[in-house]
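dude i think i finally got it to work??
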Amino acid sequence: MLASKPKPHPLVQVSINWCFGWQRPGLGGREDVAIGDDALGDIYGEECMYMPVAAPKQKCSLSRLLPGQDYYFIVRAVASSGKGEFSKVLGPCTTEKESPQKAQALELHDIELYTCSTRLRLPFNYGSPITEVHTVLRRLDGPLALEEMDEEGQVHAHVAGQEHTVAPSSLVAVDDASEASRRPQTGVTGALLRTFATEGFDKASCRFTSRKSSLECCTGRSYVVNFSNLRPGTEYEITWRCRNAMGQSPFSGALLVKTDPAAPDQPPPIAVESL
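look at this
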């Protein structure tokens, strides 16, 4: 008697590593999760683990799922006689939302004697749109005038640094890449589409992009952040963090900048005491 293929079995174990969310299985469209082995590689961040079935019911262990996303799962049994049919879809299984994680450091765009222009890129929002950007500039070293210090020699607060809190929608957005450099992006899922939508992109922009999406830089779009009233010949560090409805992210790494030195100020007139 020939061995028969295994029958569908309940979900055993699947591990998804930093996946941007699964779409409900469909009819083979690129945006859908396919149910065939040949298309598994098109699911962004997807990873399957095959485990021996030791009992009719076995618990599965899922780790590193993204917060605030809907997940659907299927499983099938595999034996020496062949592969069985897939089980029914399990889901949607929705994970809880979380605050954003650490973002990329700011990028220096331009610096002059008294101003500095930087660019930031928003990280993945972890299921809740980013509503606030908080930047911090601190003076590290440089020349000081007497009027920039108090009687005890401490630097005045407005000279020592700056802090600004703004909404991302109030920042000037810049698309760095040209249309010619855009390439199709595989593994586009619902979570990725929603993240692009919160930054004002359409679906076409998500599917054709010049940058591969990541947790630290999801859409690739940069936002201009300017600092003014700086001091010539002075070194500064700039960090930033962001917030969604669940809380704040940690501060990013520091961007170190130094303004160009300037000519000395005009001295006061010479006083003649006697001739």
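The first strand starts at residue 70 and ends at 73.
im so relieved honestly
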